[in-house]
Amino acid sequence: MATPTAVAGRIARPRATGLWRDAWGRLRKNRLAVVGLFLVIALVFVGVFGPWLAPYPYSQQDLAAVFAAGGGPLPPLSPGHVLGTDQLGRDLLSRLLDGARISVSVAFVVQIVILGIGVPIGAIAGWFGGRLDNALMRFTDIIYAFPDLLFIILMSVAFRETVFGQALDGLLLVFVAIGLTSWVTVARLVRGQMLSLKETEFVEAARAIGVADRRIVTRHLLPNGIGPIIVAVTLGIPAAILAEATLAYIGIGVQPPRASWGSLIAEGQKFIRSEPHLVVFPAIAIALALVGFTFLGDGLRDALDPKLKGKQ
Amino acid sequence: MSQKRLLALVGAVAIVASACGGTPASQAPASQAPGASVAPSTEPSAELADEQIIRWPLIQDPATIDPTMAQDSQSTAVLTSVQRGLVYIDKDLNLVPGLAESWDISPDAKTITFHLKDAQYSNGDPIVAADLVYSWKRLVDPRTAAPYSYVMAEVVGGQDLLDLAGAKPAATDAVVDAALEKFGVAAPDEKTFVVTLAFPATYFLSVATMWVTVPIQEKWITSEGATETGNYVASGPFTVESWDHNAQIVLKPNPNWYGEKPTLTEIQMPIFAELAEAQRAYEADEVDSVYPIPDEDIARIKDDPAFADQYSVIPTLGIAHYDYNNGVDPSGEGKLARCPDEKTCPTVNKDFRIALTQAIDKQAFIDATFSGIGTVANSFVMPGLPGYDETIDPYPFDLTAAKASMDKALASIGYASAADIPALKFGFNTGAGHEPRVAFLAEAWNQAFGLKTEQIGSEFSVFLTQRTAGEYDIARDAWGADYPHANNQLSGNFTCGGGNNNSQYCNPAFDALLLEAASEPDATKQADLYKQAGKILADDAADLPLLYRDFATVVKTWVDGEIVTPIDHNNPGDKFAETIKILKH
Amino acid sequence: MITYLARRILWIIPVLFAVSIITFVLMHAVPGGPWDAEKRLPAGVQARLNAEYGLDKPLYEQYIQWAGAFVTGDLGPSYRSRDRRVNDIVADGIATTVQLGVMAFTLSVVVGIPLGIFAALGHNRWPDYLSTSVSIIGIATPSFVLAILLVVLFAVELGWFPTGGWKGPQYWVLPTVALAGFPIAVIARYTRASMLEVTRKDYIRTAQSKGLGNTSVVSRHMIRNALIPVVTILGPTLAFLVTGSFIIETIFSVPGIGRFYISAISTRDYSLLMAMTMLYAFAIAFLNVVVDVLYAYIDPRIRYS
Question: Of the segments A106-110, B173-177, C34-38, C245-249, which one has the largest average pLDDT value?
């Protein structure tokens, strides 16, 4: 004979695993999401194994080939250079593959910083309300009101020549600066979800039976509010990649001779009328990454919403 | 192109020759236009357009059009059409009378007496010698803190006033006023302006062409909003009609201009945020010329037949070079703190610098990273300047010699191989197209010696701060002449503790030669002294000269008579607007 | 509600104070100074200028001096344009920047929200895919790439619009579109996600089961509720558009103040930089309050006390 708790546990357990299994099932049926998942996996794979896949080291020049062709960047499908080269004969494919590492790390590191700060602050403020909410929200007001790009640029310039500024080819500083200025939106979103959800019936019911606050927040409110958070993170990844590209455009970020997709675009767009491949391929690379994350995020969003169950 | 280069040299030498002649400069036209690019002119009989309006782009709002305070190229681009100095450089690079009818130079070449023309400002007031006294004193007055005050250093009392600027505690008004009393400018009558110099006037007439030395009316410049729309008082052929900040400046002919009335009825100067955009506007027929065209567009345009009758290349008085860290403290005395020995800073070793120099194929560098525009440079004094010596080339590109020099350097420094040297700090500023150039050099040294470099791209101001402090082993650098003379070229850049000594270089023999040259009244002997000085620099491999820069320009075919000379590199804008005509199109 | 509003608006003052201190310190921590140039100014001239602008004083004194002038409305002299006041520079360009931002915002909302609703109503069918494709393009193209593409195609090649400037409506089109590309996509995505969330809510099903017509349900309940999360991003979006136009203003040579946002940093024009920071911080903080008020208005369950 099972005790009531054991029964509850037995019922609860399959339900929990079922949620994720169902979600996976729904995700698989969503063609766009599968495309997105495939693109993200491919991106991560390239990001990890890029240096072994690249035909040349990213900084290797082939001036002989450039001069033999009469000077100037080699066009795509040149012998030995599928995507062509820049004016120094550096292989564009190899540089893109190295850039994938940077984009992958931008995507994940910045989002981790954002979630790590934004979700707890938003959840605590939204759930507890009152003075704590007030204090946290006033704090976010300051961060929020701070012109973010100004902060990132000032940080990047001020600490450029320090050990911290040189770490990871200059990227760590940029990641941290982007993360520090970007979490407020997520915090506000989470708080907004909390405010809407905490007066719903199921929360009141949970409170009535004496479930601890923390448990309600982590087990009920956050999962129920996860849709918008996933959408925010999904859009946050492209935002972080674009932020890095924007910084690269104004000359801040990865240390040469390495180049991120952003800085390749920034450099290549100057030659858009004469050497379009220098901007087209990096732009396609970024677009694929962004499309991948967006499709996947969308699919996850639809798949993870428990209330959608049985509707399709 | 090399012919143009040579002609430019001839032209600039002519400046100095006439500067020392002691007679009014010749107005006879030179047989050829030296180095100047004349806008492709169609048949002379071509019909004029109904609207005589030219559109010249400015890149960013000029910081000021107060002649005394201006320093950047966009400010001078406006000033050269609206202000005129005592002396003027014509399109053949001859020194010709400007507001001065003529001038006399005393036998010791230390006193210049200018005789002014009967000329008026745009507001109808006469241009008098007292305005020049006011203008020159205003320029050198430490309270003005004018960027180009240093060109007054050669005038009697000028150096004292310049020294007062940095005095601690700050000089009192009484002290400054007393020093200004002793300043060597005077106006014995309304039409005579006398300058007394501390050094022989070998090049001072060139200074009298600069925008900072034009006459200024005190009652105008001290009035509220003097340089804003409607208030401007011009001494040149045009005046400022309106200034819509960050959008457009419009110039109209100066009704009281003493010379021939210009054909142009209006100069529109739309203000762009960056050069690339001015180029796009040109190609969309929104502006009539671009100088210089952006580096990234040169390759596309120079081979495009559609631009064949619009495109030309103009030599400049500018050089692109890279600094080696020679290890002397920026004060000029003692070692740089971060360079206690050659092991820490290998570039302090002369053979090491020679090896680096010999490993660079400069022509390949120009072809790969400057679209082939420019001429190989081996010495810091450029063609067109007295003191240029084309025979200087102590360390030509030669990989075998480079390896030998490197071996010698390594043995002396104490490394087994170049690969053992910790990565050299190679500094440059980002966002200005230097990245491929730095990569080219770094790769060349890596290929030749296995030498590692850490490429440090920084924001411009940060880069400048670090470069000045000697924080880099190798750093990007560039120089453009303010006026065509070797003194301007060499003194601040390589003298011990010099203000622009970015190579942390110090050689007493070099300094002594410059000092001797500065007080040499004979131009030929002086040029020879500068040649010797230039040779010391090159032999020491003090820096890495790479190329004398050329600028490319495009001008619409319907613009007749727009001329850009090598001087425009640093003092752009004087495109001889008063002679331009717009043809029917 | 009134006291709440007053308190929130008053709170902007300490926010600006905190932002100004952080910026001031960070700005002066950045190496270099306003007189830096490839050709260095003589040391004496630099010293004189430093004294003239008070840069030789301790940092806290400089801050007090700045803050004292700021509260009286004096933004100080520009370091780059030595005969201009920052007040004049800001006054010259602010209307243009606000106009560009508001036009782009209007375009984003007018296109983005309907696109999102359209997608949600046709969930997993062609309207969804179409809308998703449009927003993917918006998200996947950095604004400077979009801007360059637009200017090369429509200004240089086709000649339909001028390449830059701000002299009339035909000059407004390309910068507005280039600036709005990204927010259109963001707003469409948020609207779509929010709409889908709401369609599953019980009250919608209740309304449907009570026999309310589809149109009525959509308009009265769904859109209103779906717009709640959307409103939270409209504030940031407007702030982003008004304060984030620097690249667009640069590429199209728009004579606004947006491009000073970056150029003031690189020229170390301290007074201009502080003015820009204060202006932007105020704009963002104020819009934030507006959003919260709208939030309460749209969602009656949220009460402020």
Answer: B173-177
The model's confidence at residue C228, banded by pLDDT at 50, 70 and 90, is confident
- Residues 89-148 of chain A whose Cβ lies under 8 A from any Cβ of chain C: 138, 141-142, 144-147
**Closest approach of chain C CAs to the CA of A257, in angstroms?**
22
pLDDT tens readout for residues B164-180: 987 877 788 999 999 99
**C194 falls in which pLDDT band (50, 70, 90)?**
confident
Q: Kindly list the distances between the CA atom of residue B575 and the CA atoms of B41, B80, B264, B517, B550, in Å, as whole numbers in the listed order.
A: 15, 9, 13, 33, 17
Contact flag C151-B167 (C-beta cutoff 8 Å) = no
Cis peptide before B292 (omega within 30 of 0): yes
Single out the residue of B296, B347, B279 nearest to residue B554, CA to CA. Answer: B279
Do residues A96 and A132 touch, judged by C-beta distance below 8 A?
no
Farthest-apart Cα atoms in chain A, separation: 87
| Complex prediction ipTM | 0.87
Long-range contacts of B407-416 (CB under 8 A, 24+ apart): B408/B351, B408/B355, B409/B346, B409/B349, B409/B351, B409/B352, B409/B354, B409/B355, B412/B342, B412/B349, B412/B351, B413/B342, B413/B343, B413/B346, B413/B349, B413/B352, B414/B342, B414/B343, B415/B343, B415/B346
Q: Measured in whole angstroms, how far is the alpha carbon of residue B66 from the centre of its chain?
A: 19
pLDDT at A216 over 80: no
CB-CB contact of B137 with B66 (8 Å)? no
**What mean pLDDT do residues B512-527 have?**
88
Q: Collect all residues of chain B within an 8 Å Cβ-Cβ radius of residue A255.
A: 455-457
Average pLDDT, chain C: 86
Residue A64 to chain C, least CA–CA distance (Å):
31
Q: CB–CB of C273/C23 below 8 Å?
A: yes
Q: Is B492 on the interface with A (CB under 8 A)?
A: no
Taking the C-alpha atoms of residue B174 and residue B358, their distance in angstroms, rounded to an integer, is 56
Spatial separation of the C-alpha atoms in residues A57 and C112, rounded to whole Å: 43
Radius of gyration of chain B (CA): 24
Burial status of residue A204 (CB atoms within 10 A of its CB: 0-12, 13-18, 19 or more):
exposed
Strands B581-582 and B559-560: antiparallel
Phi, psi of B208, rounded to the nearest 5 degrees: -70, 0
Work out the minimum CA distance from A137 to partner chain B, whole angstroms. Answer: 35
Return the exposure string of C59-94: e unless at least 16 CB atoms fall within 10 Å of the residue's CB, then b.
Answer: eeebbeebeeebeeeebbbbbbbbbbebbbbbebbe
Query: pLDDT tens-digit profile of B318-359?
Result: 999 999 999 999 888 889 999 999 999 999 999 999 999 999
Question: Hey, are the CB atoms on B442 and A257 less than 8 Å from each other?
Answer: yes
Say if C51 is an interface residue toward chain A (CB within 8 Å).
no
Best mutation target among A146, A199, A230 (most C Cβ atoms within 10 Å) is A146
* Residue where the block lists tokens 């236009």: B33
By Cβ distance, the residue of A141, A150, A294 closest to C15 is A141
Chain B interface includes A270 (CB < 8 A):
yes
Name residue B551's beta-bridge partners.
B314
Contact B273 C251 (CB under 8 A): yes
pLDDT digits (tens, 9 = 90+) for C175-184: 999 999 989 9
> For residue C153, what is the DSSP state?
I
Task: Please tell me the distance from the alpha carbon of residue C107 to that of residue C103, in angstroms, as a whole number.
Answer: 6
- Which residues lie below 8 Å from residue A4, measured CB to CB, with a gap of 6+? none
Q: What is the mean pLDDT of residues C42-56?
A: 89
- Residue C47 CB: number of other CB atoms within 10 A? 21
**Predicted TM-score (pTM) above 0.80:** yes
In three state form, how does the secondary structure of B499-561 look?
CCCCCCCCCHHHHHHHHHHHCCCCHHHHHHHHHHHHHHHHHHCCEEEEEEEEEEEEECCCEEC
